[in-house]
Amino acid sequence: MSIAEKMLFLRSWLRDPQLVGAVAPSSRALAALITSDIRSSNEPVIELGPGTGVFTQALLARGVPRERLVLVEADPAFARSLGQRFPGVRVLQMDAAHLGQTGVFFGRERASAIVSGIPLLAMPVEKAMAIIRGAFLRHLRADGALYQFTYLPRCPVPQALLERMGLHAVRIGFVVANLPPAFVYRFRRVNMSGGRVVRGESPEGLLA
């Protein structure tokens, strides 16, 4: 990461520490883990809270086409920088809590994966749930997954809320080489019998 990107992170953190939610940019090791399930394909992907673009770079390196990647970033300075650094990638300056109120980003398609760098535990639970619900209800296909990291050794979404939204969370790894060390979780829908949904099932049914 360049000095300019580090200074951009510092200025954004000083302006709104809660929005940034970290004391340092995410490491390449964390980027490698949170994108590890995503393979080179033409399937659309959404990134929430990309910040300085560490995860974005990892997604592009894994073969996600630029035109099939959408970045949702609330901070205007980060959004401008991302647009300059990643030409051809669509950058939307917006609050991810409004995901449930937008149109889909890829025409009739929904994303196969959403990678989130948003600090869920640093915000009111109502806002965090609006982000998760909007992501699954509006933007992820039925068999899609949302990947979220957290600094605490527990799921960032309480089990009662997961059950209410029809979601299942699995911790897929832990990264020591990050400041601070981080855990990564994968969220998927479950069907009414407790198993994972299969492609073709309605994504609205479980989250309505």
Question: How would you sum up this structure, described in words?
Answer:
The chain is an alpha/beta fold and about 210 residues long. Helix content is about 35%, strand content about 25%. It has eight helices and seven strands; from the N terminus they run H-H-H-E-H-E-H-E-E-H-E-H-E-E-H. The chain has helices at about 5-15, 15-20, 30-35, 55-60, 75-85, 125-140, 160-165, 205; strands at about 45-50, 70-75, 90-95, 110-115, 140-150, 165-175, 180-190. Strands 3-2-1-4-5-7-6 form a seven-stranded mixed sheet, sandwiched between helices. Helix 3 crosses helix 4 (about 55-60). The longest helix has 15 residues, at about 125-140. It is globular. The model is unreliable at about 195-205 (pLDDT under 50).
Q: How are the SSEs placed, and which strands pair?
A:
Elements: H1 3-15, H2 17-20, H3 28-34, E1 45-48, H4 54-61, E2 69-73, H5 76-85, E3 90-93, E4 111-116, H6 125-139, E5 140-150, H7 159-165, E6 167-175, E7 182-189, H8 204-207
Parallel strand pairs: 1-2, 1-4, 2-3, 4-5
Antiparallel strand pairs: 5-7, 6-7
Helix pairs in contact: 3-4
